[in-house]
Amino acid sequence: MLKKSAISLSKYVQHKNTDKLVEQVLDIANFELIEQNPPKEVKKVIFVTPYMRKHSGGLTSVLRIAMRLSANNIDVFFTCPTNDNCLEMKKNACDNLANYEANYLSWIEARKMEYDFVIAVQDTYIYYARKLKGYLIYFVQDYEPYFNPVGDRYFLSKKAIELGEDIISLGKWNLQEIRRNVVLDKLGNLYSIDFPFEVSEYPLTKKDFKNILEKKEINIAVYIKRESKRLPGIVMNLLNHLYDEYKKEDIKINIYYFGLHNVEKVKYGVNLGRISKSEIRNLYDKCDFGMVASMTNISLVPYEMIASGLPVIEFRDGSYSSFLGEDTAILLESFSHMELKEKLDNYIKDISQLNHLCDRAQEKIKNLSWDISGNQFVDILKKISAND
Question: What is the pLDDT, as a whole number, of residue 343?
Answer without folding.
Answer: 97
